From TrEMBL:
CDD domains: biotinyl_domain. This is Uncharacterized protein. SUPFAM superfamilies: Single hybrid motif. Transmembrane segments: none annotated. One of its GO terms (cellular component) is efflux pump complex. InterPro entries: Single_hybrid_motif. One of its GO terms (molecular function) is efflux transmembrane transporter activity. It comes from bioreactor metagenome.
Length: 294
């Protein structure tokens, strides 16, 4: 009798556990939602560009001498004939002549009007004959050199307008000129030059170039990138839309242009009120129970 009484609570406890397991709620994936919007996305390629001056001239020392004055700095605008350096011959320096005697003093003048891009010598430096003092560039000869991969050369035709973004965020409109005739063997890219209406920029400045590939229509459907999923081959794309407050179902889509934030949905046509899963849709099945969070 005692054994029967002992077993009875165990059976009752097991039944209680089974009931609890049966009543456990089905897990749901926490998601946030978004809606389709209307806008324009221009499909473009992004490349790097480097500033260069095509027309430059070097000022050199005509004799062995010492630099006594430097009257320019990088970025200075100069006119042809303007004094930019003062030199003292090594003989004058050895004799220690005073300032009233101008023997051996040489004023170096700019050979052309332009912008100083490089100053190589400072006051007190000793120069041998032919030493470069500075370089003067024609401001109008500034170009942005762009190495365009061969597969993108179809988008970089002569006269094509592109956008150039400087490191400080300033955006310039530029026009692409004819490419060089040869290819870079290693990178398989072709050198293009683009001109922009801009003031002085140091040579060797790295900028970002955006070249338009295809323009989007004005009424394109847009979704955030994280709302659109794809397979490993990037051939099939889909979104997860809400059938009701607790069920998300897969909807295959055809995409168009895209940028770093949004993707154009070409088809199907989505209602502005359609609820699309924004966060939480990764690795979902064809249908998934969900829980909307704010």
């Amino acid at each position: 009798m005692k054994k029967i009484l002992f077993i009875l609570p165990v059976i009752l406890f097991s039944c209680t556990q089974n009931n609890n397991n049966t009543d456990a709620p089905t897990p749901r994936t926490a998601i946030t939602i978004t809606h389709v919007s209307q806008g324009v996305i221009n499909d473009s390629i992004t490349l790097s560009a480097i500033t260069s001056y095509l027309n430059k001239s070097s000022i050199t020392s005509p004799i062995p001498a010492y630099v006594t004055k430097v009257l320019i700095e990088p970025g200075s605008k100069v006119q042809a004939g303007q004094t930019i350096f003062r030199l003292e011959s090594k003989e004058r320096n050895a004799l220690g002549l005073d300032d009233h005697n101008t023997t051996g003093i040489i004023d170096m003048k700019a050979s052309a009007s332009g912008i100083i891009t490089l100053v190589k010598q400072q006051a007190g430096d000793y120069l041998t004959e032919g030493t470069i003092l500075c370089e003067i560039a024609n401001q109008n000869s500034l170009v942005f050199e762009i190495n365009v991969p061969y597969e993108y050369t179809q988008y970089a035709g002569t006269g094509k307008i592109c956008n150039i973004t400087l490191p400080d965020g300033k955006v310039l409109n530029a026009q692409i000129a004819s490419p060089m005739a040869s290819m870079n063997v290693v990178s398989q890219s072709q050198l293009y030059k683009a001109k922009a209406n801009v003031g002085f920029l140091p040579e060797g400045l790295i900028a970002t170039v955006s070249i338009l590939k295809n323009a989007s229509i004005s009424s394109a459907q847009l979704l955030p990138r994280q709302a659109v999923q794809c397979d490993v081959s990037m051939q099939r794309y889909w979104i997860m839309r809400l059938a009701n407050d607790s069920l998300a179902v897969k909807q295959e889509v055809e995409i168009g242009n895209g940028d770093k934030n949004n993707i154009e949905i070409v088809s199907p046509v989505l209602s502005p009120s359609e609820r699309i899963v924004l966060d939480g849709s990764y690795a979902m099945g064809d249908s998934t129970l969900v829980k909307i969070i704010k």
